[in-house]
């Protein structure tokens, strides 16, 4: 089912999304990859405030390539989400409502998604140039020294993703495998 959803992600919208839904996100999302997640973890361990509020926000696991002239951002494809698995449950417990990446997630992340009524979306790997066309603005808001791994605030318009793990714990990677595998 095609869904058009505004971000930040409301609790109502997060709970209404189902594994397998095609979703077009419009609004504000943030980028963060491995180095930024590590730095956020260290910040929390020191008892300090994060550079962005987690509540209802969506983090896209992406480090863009440099923007060409006249463009807001370069290629903007997803990175492998499992690399953030050791950090994700804590951020979900702080109110993070959605994550965008590619690939499977650990049981601990899936449990934290259900516990917090959140969603894991997949973006199509290898389609970074196409995905960048849905990004209308990009601004580094923290950790600029990390270059492409800095935290960015993105404004997106109909950014295409697929719900992989929904707030009820349904996992498209598991159900699709069962549905399409032959014995």
Describe the protein's architecture and organization.
This protein is of the alpha/beta class. The protein has a single domain (2-180), classed as Fe-S hydro-lyase, tartrate dehydratase beta-type, catalytic domain (fumarase, Alpha-Beta Barrel), CATH 3.20.130. The chain is 26% helix and 27% strand. It is built from 6 helices and 7 strands; from the N terminus they run βαβαβαβαβαββα. It has helices spanning 11-16, 34-45, 88-93, 107-116, 128-132, 172-180, and strands at residues 2-7, 22-31, 58-60, 98-101, 119-122, 135-142, 151-165. Strands 2-3-4-5-7 form a 5-stranded mixed barrel. α4 (107-116) links the parallel β4 (98-101) and β5. It starts with a strand and ends with a helix.
How much strand content do the residues show? Answer: 25-35%
Can you tell me the overall shape?
globular
Give the neighbour order of strands across the main sheet. Answer: 2-3-4-5-7
Please name the fourth-level CATH homologous superfamily: Fe-S hydro-lyase, tartrate dehydratase beta-type, catalytic domain
In total, the number of domains comes to 1
Family: Belongs to the class-I fumarase family.
GO molecular function, one term: hydro-lyase activity
InterPro entries: Fe-S_hydro-lyase_TtdB-typ_cat, Fe-S_hydroAse_TtdB_cat_sf
Pfam family, one: Fumerase_C
What is this structure, in a nutshell?
The protein has 183 residues and is of the alpha/beta class. Helices cover 26% and strands 27% of the residues. Strands 2-3-4-5-7 form a five-stranded mixed barrel.
């Amino acid at each position: 089912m095609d869904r058009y959803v505004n971000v930040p992600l409301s609790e109502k919208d997060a709970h209404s999304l189902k594994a397998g839904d095609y979703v077009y996100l419009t609004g504000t999302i943030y980028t963060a990859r491995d180095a930024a997640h590590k730095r956020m973890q260290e910040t929390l361990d020191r008892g300090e405030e994060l550079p962005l509020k987690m509540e209802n926000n969506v983090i896209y696991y992406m480090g863009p390539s440099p923007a060409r002239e006249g463009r807001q951002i370069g290629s903007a494809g997803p990175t492998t989400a499992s690399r953030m698995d050791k950090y994700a449950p804590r951020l979900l417990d702080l109110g993070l409502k959605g994550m965008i990446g590619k690939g499977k997630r650990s049981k601990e992340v899936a449990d934290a998604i259900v516990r917090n009524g959140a969603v894991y979306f997949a973006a199509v790997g290898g389609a970074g140039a196409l995905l960048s066309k849905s990004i209308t603005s990009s601004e580094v808001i923290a950790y600029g020294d990390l270059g492409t791994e800095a935290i960015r605030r993105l404004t997106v318009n109909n950014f295409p993703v697929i719900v992989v793990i929904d707030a009820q714990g349904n996992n498209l990677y598991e159900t699709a495998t069962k549905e399409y595998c032959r014995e």
